[in-house]
């Protein structure tokens, strides 16, 4: 999961970014200004946004209003010290998906983020799937048809996770880089090609394939079974 944290308290933002990455493997991008957050949300894709209200540049209210005005449906969790009923109702009516007052427990924030992302994809169970391939979000393991876990390296796991989160939709190399290798300038697009090649070999005969869409990226999709054939990559 890749989220945008919009928070102007630097110590809190650094601590929260490290903790979410360590505990849940969540990639946290950070913006300490509402205008900067708005610009990034226009140019990049995130799985969720954690949004403070009292921001320089553009307020949290303004950031949320601009997102919804352009039909950006990225889930938004409002994180703020302003915990009045009027404030909560106003933010929910303006398009926020959840509300968590400060101070808070990181475990609760993580659980709420996972739930928001699942609901945004129409999934209430803690797993993602594409055909017989499933990702158990709690155990962080891929399985095929409920059998043994699929043996993957950490990098292969990260790439396949991005693809299954967007199964049926194209994902560019840059989107994979941003989610799996944030801030790692040593990983280049050619490395993604190598990882995709390895994953294709591991998905042979599993009725799941990674398709290259020229000019668009890669797409994970179920391969229909044919008579006398279990499917191939």
Helix-strand blueprint:
Layout: E1 2-6, H1 10-24, E2 27-31, H2 34-43, E3 48-51, H3 60-69, E4 76-80, H4 85-93, E5 98-101, H5 106-120, E6 127-130, E7 133-136, E8 141-144, H6 154-165, H7 173-180, H8 189-202, E9 208-213, E10 217-222
Parallel strand pairs: 1-2, 1-3, 3-4, 4-5
Antiparallel strand pairs: 6-7, 7-8, 9-10
Helix pairs in contact: 2-3, 6-8
Domain Response regulatory: 2-117
Domain OmpR/PhoB-type: 125-222
Modified residues (4-aspartylphosphate): 52
Description of the molecule:
The modification 4-aspartylphosphate is found at residue 52. The chain has 8 helices and 10 strands. The relative contact order is 0.10. The protein is of the alpha/beta class. Strand 7 and strand 8 form a beta hairpin. The mean pLDDT is 85. A 5-stranded parallel sheet has the order 2-1-3-4-5, sandwiched between helices. Strands 6-7-8 form a 3-stranded antiparallel sheet, covered by helices on one side. The longest helix has 15 residues, at 10-24. Helix 2 packs parallel to helix 3 and helix 6 packs across helix 8. The protein folds into 2 domains: 2-123, Rossmann fold (3-Layer(aba) Sandwich), CATH 3.40.50.2300; 129-222, Arc Repressor Mutant, subunit A.
């Amino acid at each position: 999961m890749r989220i945008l944290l919009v928070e102007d308290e630097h110590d809190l933002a650094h601590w929260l970014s490290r903790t979410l990455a360590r505990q849940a493997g969540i990639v946290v991008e950070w913006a300490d200004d509402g205008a900067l957050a708005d610009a990034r949300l226009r140019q990049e894709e995130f799985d969720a946004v954690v949004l403070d209200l009292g921001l320089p540049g553009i307020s949290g209210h303004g950031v949320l209003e601009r997102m919804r005005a352009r039909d950006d449906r990225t889930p938004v969790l409002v994180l703020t010290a302003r915990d009045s009923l009027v404030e909560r109702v106003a933010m929910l009516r303006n398009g926020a998906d959840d509300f968590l007052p400060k101070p808070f427990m990181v475990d609760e924030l993580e659980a709420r983020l996972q739930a928001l992302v699942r609901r945004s994809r129409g999934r209430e169970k803690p797993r993602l799937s594409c055909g017989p391939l499933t990702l158990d979000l709690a155990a962080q393991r891929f399985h095929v048809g409920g059998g043994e876990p699929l043996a993957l390296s950490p990098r292969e796991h990260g790439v396949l996770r991005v693809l299954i989160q967007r199964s049926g939709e194209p994902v560019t190399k840059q989107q994979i880089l941003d989610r799996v290798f944030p801030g790692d300038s040593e990983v280049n697009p050619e490395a993604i090609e190598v990882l995709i090649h390895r994953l294709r070999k591991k998905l042979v005969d599993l009725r799941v394939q990674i398709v290259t869409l020229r000019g668009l990226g890669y797409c994970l999709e179920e391969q229909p079974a044919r008579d006398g054939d279990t499917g191939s990559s």
